[in-house]
Amino acid sequence: MPRPGSPGQYLTLDCLGGLQLFPLPQDKRGGKALTAYLLHDLKEFVMATSLVDAPSSGSFYTWTNGSLWSKLDRVLMNSVSSDRRLMCSAEFLPMEPTSNHCPVLATVGAEIRGTAQYVLCGKLKLLKKPLRKLNCDEFRGIFDKTSRVKEAFKAAIILQMATLDDLVFQEEVRVLRERADVFMHAERTLSGQKARCTHLVEGDYSTKYFYAMVNKNKQMNSISYVVR
After folding, report:
1. pLDDT digits (tens, 9 = 90+) for 69-127
2. Of the candidates 96, 113, 130, which is a domain's last residue?
3. Residue 224 falls within a domain, yes or no?
4. Origin, by domain of life (predicted)?
5. 63: how many CB neighbours lie within 10 A of its CB?
6. What pLDDT sits at residue 222?
7. What gap in Å lies between CA 83 and CA 126, rounded to an integer?
8. Whole-model pTM above 0.70?
9. 24 and 109: one domain?
């Protein structure tokens, strides 16, 4: 969990498990109550990071060892999420046989009010900035990244010929091959997008050719019949 003043404090949501946020007497059944001394550090941390308990539904007690029951798991949100109009809610599902904790389904969404079309437009607008960052982080310099991965794979193949019995190195080569496939697929996708954009821009200067291509694509995308 980030400290106040660190870069991590700008995260919109913080999900915690195994912490009791200022527990009330009814939050626990059986055993001894937690003392103020044990909760001192947690209270200071919660106040310093401005965390609040997100609205929750479902199972009230989220943990048990068979004899003790406690509302141990919570979903917390900080003030940054409120400033960005993000709403968070938690639904604690019935306990599974494989764990003594209840699984939690956290829902995060923007608080946008209005007509359905206005809400959709507002949510798409909020997605613009993170999608732009994702595009820059993952697809910037994709051709250079692909070239480096391909060269690394070729070098690994040459080394593999001399170490055919090395199973660990064979696994590394397999991982390199899969990574190269991913980058090459991304490279082809980006090249196809650029080609389509160039075709549309240049085709617009030749109206006859442009509409001929549109009609051709229309015929290819048509549904001639439906099989029941």
Report:
1. 888 888 888 766 655 566 778 899 998 888 889 999 888 776 677 888 888 888 888 88
2. 113
3. no
4. Eukaryota
5. 20
6. 62
7. 13
8. no
9. yes
- Residue 126: CB atoms within 10 Å: 15
Would you state the structure tokens that stand for residue 69, as one six-digit string? Answer: 């029951």
Residue type, 109: G
Q: What is the SS3 string spanning 53-113?
A: ECCEEECCCCEECCCCEECCCEEEECHHHHHCCEEEEEEECCCCCCCCECCEEEEEEECCC
Bridge partner residues of 74 (DSSP):
16
For residues 76-101, one letter each, b for 16 or more C-beta atoms within 10 angstroms of the residue's C-beta and e for the rest, the string is bbbebbeeeebebebbbeebeeeeeb
User: Is 92 or 23 the better-scoring residue by pLDDT?
Assistant: 92
- Is there a single domain that holds both residue 39 and residue 79? yes
How many independent structural domains does the chain possess?
2
> How far apart, in whole angstroms, are the C-alpha atoms of residue 86 and residue 105?
16
Distance, CA of 199 to CA of 213 (rounded, Å) = 10
- Angstrom distances, CA of residue 38 to CA of 33, 47, 89, 120: 10, 16, 28, 46
Alpha-carbon span 170 to 174, nearest angstrom: 6
Residues 6+ apart with CB under 8 A from 111: 85, 86, 87
* Domain encompassing residue 194: 141-217
Confidence of residue 20 (pLDDT cuts 50, 70, 90): very low
| Angle of CA points 111, 88, 57, to nearest 5° | 125
Please classify residue 114 by burial: count the beta carbons closer than 10 Å to its beta carbon, then call 0-12 exposed, 13-18 middle and 19+ buried.
exposed
**Same domain, residue pair 28 and 98:** yes
